[in-house]
Write a structure and sequence with these properties.
This protein is of the alpha+beta class. It has a single domain, classed as Aminopeptidase. Helix content is about 30%, strand content about 30%. It has a 7-stranded mixed beta sheet, sandwiched between helices. Strand 2 and strand 3 form a beta hairpin. The chain is globular and about 40 Å long. It starts with 6 loop residues before the first strand and ends with a strand. Keywords: Acyltransferase, Transferase.
């Protein structure tokens, strides 16, 4: 998968996971003040992680994770009860890569991977300041605003693939 400009997006292999976590720490823990024990959870071990790296140096620039199947149903029982829904989460783009289109490319890469896994829709819980970003990519908000544990307001969204 190729992202705009100078980024490569791929499913992260075990040795690349630290790059995913480094971007998440930069964005969520350092910039947004989310406690690290909230940001890094037990679901990471069961997720498909996507990593965007800058080319040609290979530095981590962005990440997202996908939960699906029994793991997704356990964490989001009402949102993904059908078993055919991917949960897009932990989407983060490092400061130096913002404004390049990398965030949208990561969302599209999540959708491509979900299709490859045989899933038919994507569910996410967006920070409310990012609703417009996801709406431009075809996602629709529903339900009330909520705090998912980070102290940051969120909104449930979904898109059929």
């Amino acid at each position: 998968m190729t992202a705009p400009q100078r980024y490569r997006i791929a499913v992260a292999a075990e040795p690349e996971l630290e790059g995913c976590y480094a971007v998440r720490r930069e964005v969520f823990v350092t910039e947004q003040g989310v406690p690290e024990d909230v940001e890094m959870d037990a679901y990471d071990a069961h997720a498909v992680h996507l990593l965007a790296t800058s080319e040609p140096d290979g530095r981590p620039a962005g990440t997202a994770r996908i939960l699906h199947g029994a793991v997704a149903r356990r964490k989001y029982p009402t949102a993904v009860a059908d078993g055919l829904t991917a949960v897009l989460g932990r989407l983060a783009v490092g400061r130096s890569a913002r404004g390049t289109g990398l965030g949208a490319a990561l969302v599209r890469a999540v959708e491509d991977e979900a299709r490859r896994l045989g899933l038919t829709q994507v569910y996410l819980e967006a920070q409310t300041h990012a609703l417009g970003f996801y709406e431009r990519l075809g996602y629709r908000a529903y339900g009330p605003e909520f705090d998912e544990g980070s102290g940051i307001p969120h909104q449930a969204m979904r898109r059929t693939l």
